[in-house]
């Protein structure tokens, strides 16, 4: 009996020590100890069967563009076969072609490939045929965060359908700078608690459905007016401020099992004293803070290494070696895998990087691949893929998101929901389409559409809906309202009862005078789904209860938003009469 106890204890100690080596942040829910042991055994066996060159190959993810020529495809094909890379990031644009290539490359690869995609607002971010999900800023207005998990679970379903296993999302940057050119709509907002709760819900929806998440961009990209795709932004806040705002969401989320952290191309003097060294290649930031101080155990991945912030300053290959030396596990969007591997090996040979670092990173990568089921990869069928990524089930969940995000800033004259027996004038301004909104307004009365040049013909004391329709083609579009549109609004407010609806970012109201406007509603985006959801709310069919996710100005603060319950006045027509005078 005594000998049995000794053997059991010894095996537990061995397993514990081994699991320390291969510990990854992500684990499937309700995984048993037996399955954890099986995973570790697979990792050990697989790792020991790899040559040094194959181990180093696991550290790299390269980009696959299906809208580029065959020479590009062949280059990627050769890297899969000859450089033994660890994964791919899928870029634009054809879903069926991407599936066929992923199937081919997975078959050619000795170790299953990690297949990633930037799919913050769904696969539409890279595949135009897919259905667009709301931007994070829109989701930040939603008060029932379980809805965000419901949405990201649908994104996970789409990713799984494509053979994608890592969504490089969500963004947890706290957007405190309205002029931020690269984050903006990609952020859940300007308030740390809301960013944390929204991001956790998003991550859970992915990872509960076997798609890895990655919180980004460490240590925080929210307060910059520079685009790191073009140049190196500087975050010059004090350490106190960084800990309270920028780093706070990462701290809060790192012990929640989230599988990845993506490190930004930012220069942060309070964290890195050497001038011009981006966080993405800073050992002080990645190893010193992210790994040692914050204790993060998951996969650490660079932001794309082709971005101007680093690609304009460091040579390809050398940049990869610097990134690995700093503590990253994976170099994303590598521009020169072969050179990167050679330079990492040279640093190992010189004693500048330990072989233990390679073992640590590769075992984390392998364990994550196992937990994602990549050791049993099944080819995907490209048939009907576009329909599978864009159908009625997508529309239903997306409209639910927009409906719950709608934010009523003010309604002084109780003009919402609309009175089905009255006539309303509709004045659309700015640059984007608006017809779907008019077509969906459920009113018994006539909607009279007036162009901006025709507002003088609207009778005094009429009820006028003004729509700010901003371009929704990209998250990076300007939210600013033109001087002409602001003048039209001001002119109408002099002798009309105005409802202002913003089909765009809440930041659009930053320098708009709404003091004389009775009713103001923010819909956040301008597309068919958001317009349909807004029209239903105008008709009293759905509750309005979203809250502003950002500080807009001194009068419009984060957390503002009135609640308006569905109306009992549901006498809705089957057809709308729209008159253009």
The CATH class label of the largest domain is Alpha Beta
The name CATH uses for the topology of the largest domain is: TIM Barrel
Shape: elongated
Q: List low-pLDDT spans.
A: 1-21, 568-581
Q: Beta-sheet strand percentage?
A: 5-15%
The chain-level mean pLDDT equals 92
User: Total domains, how many?
Assistant: 2
What do we call the CATH homologous superfamily of the largest domain?
A: Glycoside hydrolase, family 3, N-terminal domain
How far apart are the first and last residues' alpha carbons, in Å? Answer: 95 Å
Total helical segments: 20
Instruction: Look at the helices and sheets and give the structural class.
Output: alpha/beta
What CATH architecture of the largest domain do you see?
A: Alpha-Beta Barrel
Radius of gyration: 26 Å
Estimated helix fraction? 25-40%
How many DSSP E strands? Answer: 15
Strand order of the largest sheet: 9-14-13-12-10-11-15
Description:
With 581 residues, this protein is of the alpha/beta class. It has two domains: 2-383, Glycoside hydrolase, family 3, N-terminal domain (TIM Barrel), CATH 3.20.20; 392-580, Glycoside hydrolase family 3 C-terminal domain (Rossmann fold, 3-Layer(aba) Sandwich). It is built from 20 helices and 15 strands. It has helices spanning 2-21, 33-48, 52-57, 70-83, 95-108, 136-140, 146-162, 192-207, 239-246, 248-253, 283-293, 308-311, 318-326, 337-349, 355-371, 385-388, 392-405, 435-440, 483-495, 528-538, and strands at residues 60-64, 87-90, 114-117, 166-167, 214-218, 260-263, 299-302, 331-332, 407-411, 424-429, 447-449, 463-469, 497-503, 519-522, 578-580. It has a seven-stranded mixed β-sheet with strand order 9-14-13-12-10-11-15, covered by helices on one side. The chain has a five-stranded parallel β-sheet with strand order 4-3-2-1-8. The chain has a three-stranded parallel β-sheet with strand order 5-6-7. Helix 7 (146-162) crosses helix 8 and helix 7 (146-162) packs antiparallel against helix 17. Residues 1-21 and 568-581 have low confidence and may be disordered.
